[in-house]
Design brief:
The protein has 6 helices and 7 strands; from the N terminus they run E-E-H-H-E-H-E-E-E-H-H-H-E. The chain is an alpha+beta fold.
Amino acid sequence: MAGALEVLDAGRPISFSFEEMMKYHGPGSPGGVAHAFKVMERGFAALSPDGPPDRREIRLETAFGGPGARDGFEAVTRAVTGDRFAVDASLARPERGRTRERFVFNLSYGERTATLLLREGYVTEEFIDLARAPQLSDEEKARLEQLKAEMAERVMASAADEVYEIE
C-alpha cells in the first residue's frame, strides 16, 4: 500500500492516507478513492516537485464522475467545497476504449497543469458493464462490490506512474 499524500494548509503540512480518505468517503466506491489517491500522488510530484502543494490552490477537471474519486479529491484538496473541481464529460477520450475513456484528469497547481490518463489493465470491461447498467440484480450488485474492492487493491498495489501516465 502507498504511504500518504502531503499538502499544505495555511503553510502547515498535513497528510492523508488511503485509509483516511476511505473514512471520509465511506465504503461505497473504494476504486474511485484509489484512483483519486494515485492521480494526486502522480500529479503532485509533477506539479509541485519542490514540496507539498497548497491544498487550496489545486484545481481539477475530469470526465470521471464517480463519488469515490470526488470525495477523495475533496478530502485532500477541499476542491469541491472551494469550487475548484469540475466533472466535464467533454474531457472523455473514447479513442482510449471503454475502460479508460473517462479516466482523464486535468490537475492544475499555480500556472502548471498536467493531464493524467489511466494506463491499461486497471479497470475491467465487467466493471464498466455493471457500473453503467441501469438496474442490477442482487447478485450483480454483490459482484460489482467485489469488483470495486479488487480494483482498489490493484490500483493501490501499483506505483502511481504505473497507473497514470502524464500527457
